[in-house]
């Protein structure tokens, strides 16, 4: 099986060279740049806080909120399991919301019936911070996913230390070996794991992990184009013991119904909600669409 990036026990080997994805396509320049910057960022921050100290902080952070269970409950009750996202900007969309109030947005999502939150913590490309996650989590009772480019287990301990209840693993950004290491670290901390795929080859790799949550990203990280038909193609291929989560490009109640019809009752939605005058009302419209 082809690997995506040369992520090994020496994770800071050169990630900037073009590498084939699981589907045989080269990584986009944007994704290569993001990952190259992330390797350097994690390397520098690990020098500031060694692994042993970050692990101690993670284990002192208390028990995570049940992220996977929150989505499983929504599916069992035939509700839309909305993971509502808190982010200030994105590489494709630029600045999304200003002024930006993570706590207020999180409270609005909770009142609208969201099952979980997703908070961007990448600073360079999404203008996110660890403080955004802390503020959003403290403002609600919802489980929170740390949305970032995870390339080293150190980041998983950091995620729990900052209060995150779950992490995202992007199969286009890591090898199978690193995906397993990230998942094992998260499971050792009782954290949830959402693994993200965009095509059939990445889906088969993701099914080698234990997590039940399979995110189908409708945005191609190589071309940055978005098509919700990707979920319609991949969701039927996901085994019944897993939970599909449709990500990106979902804007209208009709989009929600298309995703549910395809088998994805859980959704991760961010940019659409945050561009609305009232993100909570926009979230409620999607939660109540199915």
TrEMBL record:
Keywords from the named record: Amino-acid biosynthesis, Aromatic amino acid biosynthesis, Decarboxylase, Lyase, Tryptophan biosynthesis
Enzyme Commission number(s): 4.1.1.48
Residues covered by region (Disordered): 1-25
Extent of Polar residues compositional bias: 15-25
Keyword Plastid appears in the UniProt entry: no
Location of the Indole-3-glycerol phosphate synthase domain: 31-286
Top-rank taxon, per record: Bacteria
Catalytic activity reported: 1-(2-carboxyphenylamino)-1-deoxy-D-ribulose 5-phosphate + H(+) = (1S,2R)-1-C-(indol-3-yl)glycerol 3-phosphate + CO2 + H2O
GO biological process, any: L-tryptophan biosynthetic process
Matching InterPro entries: Aldolase_TIM (IPR013785), Indole-3-glycerol_P_synth (IPR045186), Indole-3-glycerol_P_synth_dom (IPR013798), Indole-3-GlycerolPSynthase_CS (IPR001468), RibuloseP-bd_barrel (IPR011060)
Pathway: Amino-acid biosynthesis; L-tryptophan biosynthesis; L-tryptophan from chorismate: step 4/5
Any GO MF annotation of the entry: phosphoribosylanthranilate isomerase activity
Transmembrane segments: none
CDD domains xref list: IGPS
Keyword Amino-acid biosynthesis: yes
SUPFAM superfamilies the UniProt entry points to: Ribulose-phoshate binding barrel
Matching HAMAP family: IGPS_B
Family of this protein: Belongs to the TrpC family.
Name of the protein described by the UniProt record: Indole-3-glycerol phosphate synthase
Organism per entry: Roseomonas indoligenes
């Amino acid at each position: 099986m082809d690997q995506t990036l040369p992520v090994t026990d020496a994770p800071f080997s050169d990630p900037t060279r073009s590498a084939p994805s699981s589907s045989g396509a080269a990584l986009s320049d944007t994704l290569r740049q993001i990952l190259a910057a992330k390797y350097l960022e994690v390397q520098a921050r690990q020098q500031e806080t060694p692994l042993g100290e970050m692990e101690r902080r993670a284990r002192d952070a208390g028990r995570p909120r049940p992220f996977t269970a929150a989505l499983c409950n929504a599916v069992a009750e035939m509700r839309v399991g909305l993971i509502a996202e808190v982010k200030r900007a994105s590489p494709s969309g630029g600045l999304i919301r200003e002024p930006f109030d993570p706590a207020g947005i999180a409270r609005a999502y909770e009142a609208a019936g969201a099952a979980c939150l997703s908070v961007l913590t990448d600073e360079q490309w999404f203008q996110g911070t660890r403080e955004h996650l802390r503020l959003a989590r403290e403002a609600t009772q919802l489980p929170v996913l740390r949305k970032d480019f995870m390339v080293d287990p150190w980041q998983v301990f950091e995620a729990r230390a900052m209060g995150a209840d779950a992490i995202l693993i992007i199969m286009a950004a890591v090898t199978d070996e690193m995906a397993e290491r990230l998942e094992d670290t998260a499971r050792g901390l009782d954290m949830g794991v959402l693994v993200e795929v965009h095509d059939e080859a990445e889906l088969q790799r993701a099914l080698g992990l234990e997590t039940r949550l399979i995110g189908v990203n409708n945005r191609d990280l190589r071309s940055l184009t978005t098509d919700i038909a990707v979920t319609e193609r991949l969701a039927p291929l996901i085994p019944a013991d897993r939970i599909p989560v449709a990500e990106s490009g979902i804007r209208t109640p009709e989009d929600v119904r298309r995703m549910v019809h395809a088998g994805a009752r859980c959704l991760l939605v961010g940019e659409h909600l945050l561009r609305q005058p009232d993100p909570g009302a926009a979230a409620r419209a999607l939660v109540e669409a199915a």
